[in-house]
Structures are given as C-alpha cells and as structure tokens.
Amino acid sequence: MKSVGDLKAMKAEKAQGNKRKALDDKKEDLSALLASIHLPESIRVDFPLTSQRTRDKTLLSICDGSIGYAHKKILDNINLSVTSKERVAITGSNGKGKTTLLKALLNDPTVLKSGQWNTPTLDNMGYLDQHYGTLDSEKSALEIFSGMNIFASHAEIRKHLNNFLFRKNEEVCTLVKNL
After folding, report:
1. 8 Å CB contact between 79 and 65
2. Running DSSP on this structure, what letter comes out for residue 150?
3. Quick one: which of 26, 77, 128, 162 has the most CB atoms within 10 Å?
C-alpha cells in the first residue's frame, strides 16, 4: 500500500507533467504564430548609371513632333528637351502613347514620326520593354547580363543582379519567358 506522501508526490508529478505539456503546447502555438508573421524586406536599390560624356548637355529634343502608326496618329504637338541632369517620368492612362513614344525614341520602324527629333544613338540608350520583347526568351537573367558584360567577373554580375532582386540561384537561372 502506498503512503499518503507517495500519493501526494504522484499527484504533484502528474500536475507538473500537465503544466509542462500546456507550456509546450503554448510554445508551439507561439512559434507557429511568429513563423506566420512576415515583415516586408526593406529594399534599397543601388546601382550607378554613369556616363562621362553627358556632363551638362541636351540628351534629346523633340520639336513639333508627332507619332503614330499607318492607321492612327497617337500623339502630336510633342515638344520635349531633356538634359543630362534631368530625370523624366512618362505617365498616362493605358493606350495613350507612352510605349509608342519610347519606340519612336528608339527609331522603331513601325512608328511613324514627324517633326524635328534629335535623339541619342541606339548604342547610347538602354531599353527594357514591359513584355521583355528585347530579350532572348530562352536565356536566363544571368546569361543575358553575362553576355552584355563579358569583362565582368561572376561575382560582379551576381552583385548587379542582386541589386535588381535576382538573389537566389533559382531566380538568376529563371528563363526570361518565365519571368
């Protein structure tokens, strides 16, 4: 037969086990809750766009310009001058001519333009369209950037891609058609 002391000790041990189980359950619940909380990553994009030849000169100018296609005029009365120290944002509703203007600046043969257009040569401009149409869809971001920067080291290329949020191997190796 067990003594009263033994029974009390068994009861205390069982209560301690129940409390420990409750604490472990609470700890699991809190861990799951913490895991579900996602703090957005603070992103600071930092990459240089430099040129030694553009100091304080006019990069492009359009005087009394118009653009369109064979079947439709898109924009007219375009008067624009941009210097190397200025930054320009092109905004507007869908279908109002933003992309057509950029295509005209890039001398796209499908865009008809009139007026006086003084624009940089194509080798002094870079353009990435919204549908990645200027990129080879069967290549990855790593392959494309490596091909454009044949003298850059792998580490330099990865650092640059990292600035554009291509950080993991799966991201830099994703084909353009899957972006």
Report:
1. yes
2. T
3. 162
The one-digit pLDDT tens for each residue of the chain (179 residues) are 667 666 676 776 777 777 888 888 888 888 888 777 877 777 776 666 665 555 678 888 999 999 999 989 999 999 999 988 888 888 989 888 998 999 999 889 999 999 999 988 877 777 777 777 888 999 998 999 898 888 889 999 998 888 888 888 888 999 989 88
**Residue pair 63/116 in contact by the 8 Å Cβ criterion:** yes
Coil vs helix vs strand at 73: strand
Distance CA 50, CA 128 (A): 18
Q: Quick one: 62 exposed, middle or buried, by C-beta within 10 A (0-12, 13-18, 19+)?
A: buried
Q: What CA–CA distance (Å, rounded) separates 115 from 127?
A: 23
54: exposed, middle or buried (Cβ count in 10 Å: 0-12, 13-18, 19+) = middle
